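2024-03-11 09:14:02 INFO receiving multi-entity request
2024-03-11 09:14:02 INFO entity count = two
2024-03-11 09:14:03 INFO echoing inputs for audit
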Amino acid sequence: MNRRKWAGVAGLLLPLLLTGCDSRFVVLDPQGPVAQTQQKLIVISAILCAIVIIPVIALLVFIVWRYREKPGNKAPYRPDWADSKALEIVWWGIPIVIIGILGFFTARDTYALARPPVTDTKPIRIQVTSLDWKWLFQYPDQGIATVNYVHIPAGVPVYFQLTSDAPMNSFWIPQLGGQEYTMPGMAMMLWLQADKPGEYYGSGANFSGREFAHMRFRVIAEPQKDFNEWAANIKRTSPALTGAGYTELSKPGTSEEKSFGSIPEDLYDRIVNKNGGIYMHHSEHGAGFDSDVHGIPGHDGSTGGSDSGGMSGMDHSMMHGAAGAAERSD
Amino acid sequence: MDTSHFFVTGDPLIYGADVAIVITSVAIVFALTYFKKWGWLWREWITTVDHKKIGIMYLIASLLMLFRGGVDALLMRAQLALPNMKFLQAEHYNEIFTTHGTIMILFMAMPMMFALFNMVVPLQIGARDVAYPFLNAVSFWLFFVGAMLFNLSFVIGGSPDAGWLSYPPLSELSHSPGVGENFYIWGIQISGIGSLATGINFLVTILKMRAPGMKLMQMPLFSWSVLASCITIIFAFPILTVTLALLFVDRFFGAHFFTMLDGGNPMMYVNLIWMWGHPEVYIVVLPAFGIYSEVVSTFAKKKIFGYKSMVFSMMIISVLSFFTWAHHFFTMGAGADVNAFFAISTMAIGIPTGVKVFNWLFTLFRGRITLSQPMLWTLAFVPCFAVGGATGVMLAVAPADYQYHNSYFLIAHFHQVLIGGVVFGYLAGIYYWWPKLFGFKLNERLGRWAFWLWNIGFYVCFMPQYALGFMGMTRRVYTYGWDMGWAPYNIVSSIGAVLMGAGFLFQVAQIVYSFKNGEKDTTGDPWNGRTLEWSIPSPPPVYNFARIPEVTSADAWWKRKQDRLAGKPEPEPAPLAPIHMPKNSGIPFIFACFWFVAGFGFVFHWVWMAVAGLVGVGVCLLVRSFQYDTDYYIPVDEIKRTEARSGRAV
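2024-03-11 09:21:47 INFO inference complete, emitting structure
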């Protein structure tokens, strides 16, 4: 209890006291390389800002006290003293230097985090779709899917592909790294990694309508072997996600955690395309993953709009975008 | 349109509001009739083109909106005080945070800013009115009917609930089929035209109507800040108008600019709205900077330090504000080049802002500081804004922003700069110029209660929200559980909100009390001021200056007082001449009412009504175009009588 209380005090004094927080401060408790980089930047920027604002506040208190209007105050009074080149150079200079330093770190890490991690481990790919108001995770290489929870192998880079089949949301697992928007018609990418096995908190961060507050999900990081067993088990025991099943799932409403042993072919790409993916150029540079978005039916107008395989049950309106585009490109 | 949903039903809060609205309206009508004040209301206020009265009307409207937005805030904090509260439903909570944000920025901060523009700028630059007095009245009434249209959604049709910037596709017909978003679009569009017109009006006023001799580089810094703000308005507001017009075309005519399907691009809207939205925050904060400059200099009895730097930094801010919009969505993943550019441009805006803080500090340095009410708010602003600015710089660090974005860290940051920077500034300005406009000071004792409640309340409310951000709490959730440890911080934050609400009540009491018991200002110069507005009686006569002053330096009034003290002979005053003034007109009010009718028609898709309203708008424009009898002269005798009444020989 005592420790919690102190953590509370530390929390109230943030961002000055960035150390000594317990794990409830998820942003400051990184469990993967991306979150670690971001936490370091948070600390650096807080220190750099403190270097400026603490003296400013101290100076304010000192000046107001020393130059207050009271009889017999012996402090100098110079009502026309209003110019000093030297002083002005100093305080144009201070923020420029601080911003210069911070700008350097910012640019360095902005580029660093945009690159896929260099690693010997083969990454795993997970396709994330935000729906009204639930999260669908597809594991294309395992051929399974889950809703409102996601398993990842610990110590393995995870290549999240993000899209939305509902108003824009944002995919956030604070302990693994910062969020990124899930947007209809866009396929974004986000590299994250959990260093250790554990269960982490994930949520939708961008308001997307009525039940937005319930768009949370669990992230379970486990050793690769356990992950493989889990995936095999899901494949064996869970029902299939059909096209009709997806249509049902995407209807507005909240959802329990769910698991699916198989997924319709190209479901993710179809979701991206029907919402306008065909109109946009994606710059996906996945390590070892070619973007599927450009190579799929509909883009070249040859098979756009035709139902195929597991998609037969799918609502017609879902294919609207692809079909429309095919007509227009003729 | 299904008219069975015309009146919002089913919520006790809304029935309560219905009753309150009816009772208030009946009371107002009764009072006006009983005291035979209808004619007075029409002649003195509704038809006025006097910038001072328009300023006062803006002030009243903005305080009412502050009340409404504040009630929204308290309702939200009540719902979030503890986990799993059942006080508000999800839909209702979503409506309330939407209207809270929209009202506080567009219908509270903007009109309070325009109130200060109107109350001060012409007096400060030695002018008798603004450049376009008629247009000024048009601006006010457009704002007013826009605000009323927006607020009407609470009881008729239903409030918008897609957030204060109404991101599509959430705000498109597909996800918001009700009329709430239409109210949002038309409320803002109509008042937005007024804002743009005010921007043009004050730009021209400042450039063309300064007293003879007043060079731009001798102009008071508040007027400079208004100039910078107006330039920003003129470039930013057309973007808002076009963006909302496109959204309207989507909703009304079924177009696909921002829809999910059929090639629409919702992310384009996000870019466009922030191209207005980011400059907008600088539009409202620049005049606050101007106010701090005036207050610091007056109450330290010292020339402002680094005048040129102050002007230069405001102009840089107004330019840079157009190059930072993407920092509102680094997490859209536009790529490292884009994010790095906007991160650094955002940090860069901290440089001129930091310089201003240092210049204020060194204006105080070697001064003689009196802690009157305007000064209290100014001194409270410095640490608050310094911390808020610092967290702003932290948010600008793009990779770190991936962790702050959409979290309560962000909420705490922007409330700290908007309350600590903008609201504190406007309050300082209101306390400072109140005696000029009303002829008496606001009570000191009640004011100090309000000040401490606001300030303590602020930190109690928003410091825990930084911590909540680090704990992963995202904005706009209407409920949460016990599992994340958010509860203690939320209850503390809610207590802070109540304290701020109490501060506001003290201010209402302060205003009411001071109308009867406030210390009268008979000198016209209650603060030992430095600029021209303090050279004329309080409240100023309708024509402001019996003679337009000749200006030879910055702080013109201060210099004249110093010269008098030094016994320098004053130049022989020129003989009085009749003063040319604009006539009152009812057209701005009627014109705005027709806009209201048109807006209401568009909201409910009643084309006949929209067309009728627009025809009325056209007729008003036509009538005004053929009006030639729009001005009059105040004869010299009357000027003499007026001046004598305020104890001045001319």
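2024-03-11 09:21:48 INFO post-check: Chain A has a mean pLDDT of 82.
2024-03-11 09:21:48 INFO post-check: Residues 33-66 of chain A form the longest helix (34 residues).
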